[in-house]
Design brief:
The complex is a heterodimer of chains A (81) and B (393). Chain A has five helices and no strands. Chain A is mostly helical and 81 residues long. The longest helix of chain A has 20 residues, at 48-67. Chain B has 393 residues and is of the alpha+beta class. Chain B folds into two domains: 7-53, no CATH class; 63-390, no CATH class. In chain B, a hairpin with a 3-residue loop joins strand 8 (260-266) and strand 9. Classes of the chains: A mainly alpha (81), B alpha+beta (393). The A-B interface holds A 3-8, 10-11, 13-15, 19, 22-23, 25-34, 36, 46-50, 52-53, 56-57, 59-60, 63, 70, 73-74, 77 and B 6-12, 15, 17, 43, 46-47, 49-61, 69, 72, 160, 348, 350, 352, 354-356, 380-382.
Chain lengths: 81, 393
Amino acid sequence: MERAEERAQVRAVLARLPERQSKLLVLRYAGFSYTEIATTLGIAAGSVGTLLARAERAFIAQYQQTHGTLEDVHLARRSMP
Amino acid sequence: MTECYDERQLRAYLDDALPTPEQLRLNTHLGNCSHCHARLDELREQMQQVHALLAEPITPPDAYGALTRFQQRHLWNTVGASAEAVPAPDTSWSTIMSNKAPFWSSPARRIIVAVVALVALVGVLMLPPVQTLADQLLQIFRVQQVVFVPISQERMDELENLNFDGNLFVSEPTVLNESEEVEVASAAEAAAAVGYPVREPSSLPVGITETEFRVYDDMLVEFQVDVVGVRSLLDLLNITDVEIPDALGEQPVQAAFEPMVGSSYANESYEVVVMQGRSPELSLPEGVDLRQMGTVLLRVLGMSPEQASEMANTIDWNSTLVVPFPQDISDVQQVQVNGKPALLMTGNNLSEGGSYTEDVQIYWQDGDTFFVLLVSSLDTEIIDALSIAESMY
C-alpha cells in the first residue's frame, strides 16, 4: 500500500514537470544511456548532462512544493521493512 | 590550473558519460579546484535524492526493452527499421484508451518487432556448420519451446560498452509481402480466419466495456547476416573457442510469420491485450549447424565454454528459442503459465499525455504457438496478469 502510494505521488510530481523533463528523468533512472536518451528524445547527446541537471532540480523543487521536505521521504523509506 | 567545468560536464561526469580522456581530466581538476568540487557535490546530492524517489517506482518504459540492453544495442535498430515497413494497425486500437496513444497505438507492431528481434537474435548468432546437406538449400527452424537464459549485468554492460552498431550483424530486414489486418467479430471468427484455435482468457477484471478482435496477415521478412560483424563481436568478447562459418552470410535468412490474432479487452482504466500466433519459421542458409550456433549464442550470453557446450547438448536446437533475460532486474521474472516457462515483465509507462500506466507483459510458448499477454492499468492497484494468463487454459 505504502509503495503504491509512493509511486502515485512520484508520478503526480513527474506529471507536473514539462514533458521533456519527466521523460528524461524516467529514461535516465530506468538505466538508459546518454546516447539512448538523446536518440529517444531527439536531442543532442551533448546536452543530456545540462538537461538532466535541470530536470533533477525541477523535480526536487516540485516534490518539495507538494510533499514538504525530502527528509520525510528518506525517513519513511528507511523505516520500511 | 585548468579551466573550470560547466554543469553539463559535471553532471555527465557523475554518470561516467564523458569520453574517457575528458573524464580523467575532470577528475584531476577536481583535486585542485574546490569550486568545481563543491558544485559536483551539489549535483551528486541532487542526483541521489531523485534516485531515492525514482529508482523504485520507475522501471524501463518498454518491458521488451528491458529484456536485454543487448537486443537494443545490437538488433533493435535494424529490426525496428523493418517494423516501419509493417502497416500500422488501425488507430481504433488506441482509441480504446486514447490517452495512452504512444504505448497502445500499435500493439501489433510492438509485438512483431519483439518477436522478430528474438528470432533475429537466434538466427544471427547461431553459427555456421561444417554440415554439408548437399541437396537441401535451407533448413527449417521452428520454435516449439523456449529456454530462458539469464544474462548477468556485467555481460550486459560489456555488450553495451562495445558500442556495436546493429547494422554490423544484419542487413536491414525487408518485408517481402504486403501484410494487412482486419477486424473480426469474435474469437471464433478469428480462429476460422487463421486456421488454428484461438484462446481467450476466461477470467478478466470486472467492468470490461470494449472487446475487439483482429487478424493480422502472414508476413515474410528477410535479412542478411554479416559474418564478419559477428566474428568481430566474438573477438571483442574474447570468445575464441567457437567459429562462425562463411555459409551463414551467403544466403539471406527468412522469417515467415503466419497470421496472428490480437484480442483486446478494455474499459477506461485498464486494457488487456492478447497476441497469439504460430511461431515464425526461420529459414537458415544451408550448412548452418544449429547446435554450434546455439553454443555461440550461449557463449555470448556469458556462459563458460563448458557450460555452453553442456547446455547446447541438452537443447533441441531445431525447435528451441533461447531468450536471454537480465538476471539482476527484479522486473523481469521467470514464471510458469499452464506449466510452460514464461517471462513476466513489469514496468511503468509514460504516455505523451504525461500519465503513467502500470504494465505487465507475459510471454510464453505452448507447442508451436506463442502468446504475449499485455495488461496495462491506469490505477496503481495491481491486476493479476498471471491469473489472466492461466485462465486461458
